[in-house]
Amino acid sequence: MQFNHYGGEAAMLAADLVNLTGEFTAADLEPLLASHGIVETRLSAEEVADLADWADRLTPVFGAQDLDERCAKINALLARTVTRPYISMHDHHPHLHYSVPGAGAVARIRAVTIAGLAYVVCFASASRLGRCARGRCTTAFVDTSRNGRRAYCSVRCANNDAVARHRSRS
Which of 14, 45, 87, 169 is most buried when burial is the number of CB atoms within 10 A of its CB? Predict the structure, then answer.
């Protein structure tokens, strides 16, 4: 499945933020944000704490749940962001921005991640916002597979789960 930058890529950033463990640090966040196309990656300690809080708020959106429940969670988070979508031409091609001009880095990250999750729910499938099916793993992921039936965060978790099931039968 192909996603545009403000859809799937932003949703994958949301999943990566949810999957960060331990205390967030600017050093951990800078390469992660850059890998997802976020331009302003240098964050103050306060901004790092705000982003950690945002990641905690994104966490319940992932995993198996009723569509109405997931939409209500996403709508509640959309209401918490400062958004005003507009078309930007700063790179000579029209593209959509979801935060108000001049908003801080965290406000832009909040806007783009929740808009990305909403995009996946509306234009792909809500079930694509998953959690790993391996019992000991709770990794959040965005299912980008063609058929949308991914159950594990990685091939490693799928293989480990298959081995465990095989051993339990033996």
Answer: 14
Please provide the DSSP assignment of 85-122 as one string.
Answer: EEEE-TTSS-EEEEE-TT--HHHHHHHHHHHHHHHHHH
Give the chain's length.
170
Reported as a single tens digit per residue, the pLDDT across 62-71 is 999 999 999 9
Q: Are 121 and 129 in contact (CB under 8 A)?
A: yes
Residue 169 confidence (pLDDT): 87
Residue 26 · residue 50 · CB < 8 Å: no
Q: How far apart are CA 112 and CA 83, in angstroms?
A: 9
Q: How many helices (H) and strands (E) does the chain have?
A: 6, 4
Q: What per-residue confidence (pLDDT) applies to 3?
A: 58
Beta bridge partners of 142: 129
pTM for the full model?
0.88
Output DSSP code: residue 128: G
Asked whether 137 and 144 are in contact (CB, 8 A), the reply is no
- CA dihedral 39→143→56→134, nearest 10 degrees, is -140
CB-based contact 3:144 (threshold 8 Å): yes
